[in-house]
Amino acid sequence: MQPSKSPLQPKPSKGVRLGDMTLDPPVLLAPMAGITDLPFRNLVSSFGAGLVVSEMIASQEMVQSKPSARDKAELGLGAAATAVQIAGCEAHWMAEAARMAEADGARIIDINMGCPAKKVTRAAGSGAAGSALMRTPDHACRLIEAVAEAVRVPVTLKMRLGWDDALRNAPQIARMAEAAGIAMVTIHGRTRCQFYKGRADWSAIREVRDAVRIPVIANGDIVDPASARQAMSASGGAGVMVGRGAQGRPWILAQIAHELGWGSAPRIPQGNALTDMISEHYEAMLAFYGKELGARVARKHLGWYLEGADPGLRRLVLTADGPDKVLGLIPAAVASGARLAA
Fold it and tell me: Which sites are catalytic (predicted)?
């Protein structure tokens, strides 16, 4: 399918320049807890993405070397197009975590000001993190300044439109963040209090784009080329960030990029190629986490891959006792009708 010739269709840029690197194509993988681990980021990158972002990492836990936090920050050998996202509420820990990620090879540090989870936002005052920082812009700015001053790599920011409809202050915070050294900002087109309900308001992202000179990336409900095109047009953004739309479809970022005019079409796996991709992703997760934990963590990915497959075969894959049985069942499950690209 060719990109629309509508006059509202944005002309593709040559990518987003950040420091000494260019995000080309400007189609980015969003940080997703429990999903954007190293095996999944590597798989998405293999199809083509301008940037992939780690799971959100608690800054203090990372500095204190808690294994779960360090696993989330693992860059492997393909760190060139990976950002490490950190979260927290204290400047000291945020700065130290940024230094650690940079020393480990991160090319970009991303600050989380968008997570709506209650366990992240529930603390009062300066103890709150994630999207709760949008309620305390001055404190948020101090965190941003601490991180930007701690590292030499570009620092980016991901946030929402605001805390709620009464406090939609993303343009104000974006201006403050730009002055504090942020190189790019990604806006999820919802408030914190919306969580993931309703529809993302891409047009409201344009207000942020108009408030700053740094690149602004649109995020929220971008699941395919059509929605990406609409988000670009409504927001005027420099690119898009894809989250849940990539679940079970690691090629979708490359497909979006191609249909919006960036790069060549990806080879979307079908048949035996799809079976091989799923099996290799499963084995990569076992190698990364260990067999017992890897098998549990992989179930959600297998479930997404096998949507549309025969329900009985899909159930057998998800409940099989042991990796060998899972790998043995995947070919039949795929052949029974596992979904392809949207």
Answer: 115
Amino acid symbol at 151? V
Please check if 33 is assigned to a binding site.
Answer: yes
Q: Is 115 a catalytic residue?
A: yes
Please tell me the distance from the alpha carbon of residue 249 to that of residue 329, in angstroms, as a whole number.
Answer: 20
What residues pair up with 58 in beta bridges, in sequence order?
87
Residue 137 in marked binding region: no
Residues 6 or more apart whose Cβ sits within 8 Å of residue 72: 37, 54, 55, 56, 57
**Parallel, antiparallel, or unpaired for β 21-23 and 16-18?**
antiparallel
- How far apart (Å, rounded) are the C-alpha atoms in residues 112 and 145? 14
Non-local CB neighbours of 334 within 8 Å, separated by 6+ positions? 271, 274, 275, 278, 305, 306, 309
Q: Is 188 annotated as a binding residue?
A: yes
Q: Which of 137, 140, 204, 144 is nearest to 172 (CA)?
A: 137
Is position 158 annotated in a ligand binding site?
yes
Tens of pLDDT along 14-59?
789 998 889 999 999 999 999 999 999 999 999 999 999 999 999 9
pTM for this one?
0.92
- Does the annotation place 26 within a ligand binding site? no
Active-site pick, 89, 115, 141, 193: 115
